Amino acid sequence: MKEVESRVTRYGEMCIICGKPKQHTHHLICGTSGRSFADKFGLVIPLCAKCHDELHKSGIAMDFSKMLGQAIWEKNYYMDLYNNLNKTKIDEARDRFRELNTSGSYM
């Protein structure tokens, strides 16, 4: 199975909770279809075995895990959307400037 890069943390080799070496990858969105969704969008966090077990035992922690996953997905989705729109606007403005500058009618 291919290792998924986390969009949650840059520190993929250590447990995000206690700092011990990573042993497990926790999917913030879980369940059968949730895992593939989490993999696709990097909604995973590195955990040691103990912290991973504890997280799954706690209903509150699992609920928080899902909320965190949703919040990060929404943030990344809207940031990507903004960046793509912004790039398009910049490209359009640059092209328009070049058109006007070439024709000599930019004033």
Strand sequence of the main sheet, in spatial order? 1-2
Largest beta-sheet details: 2 strands, antiparallel
Q: How far is the N terminus from the C terminus?
A: 59 Å
What is the residue-averaged pLDDT? Answer: 83
Indicate the percent of residues in helices: 55-70%
Beta-strand level of the residues, as a percent range? 5-15%
Counting DSSP H or I runs of 4 or more residues, the number of helices is: 3
How much is the radius of gyration in Å? 21 Å
Number of strands: 2
- Flag low-confidence runs: none
Describe the protein in words.
The protein is mostly helical. It has one domain. 60% of the residues lie in helices and 7% in strands. The protein contains three helices and two strands. A two-stranded antiparallel ribbon has the order 1-2. The radius of gyration is 21 Å and the shape is elongated. The model has no long low-confidence stretch (mean pLDDT 83).
Write the layout of secondary structure elements.
Blueprint: E1 24-27, H1 32-41, E2 44-47, H2 49-57, H3 59-103
Antiparallel strand pairs: 1-2
What is the compact description of this entry?
By secondary structure, this protein is mainly alpha-helical.
Jot down its keywords.
107 residues, mainly alpha, two-stranded antiparallel ribbon, elongated
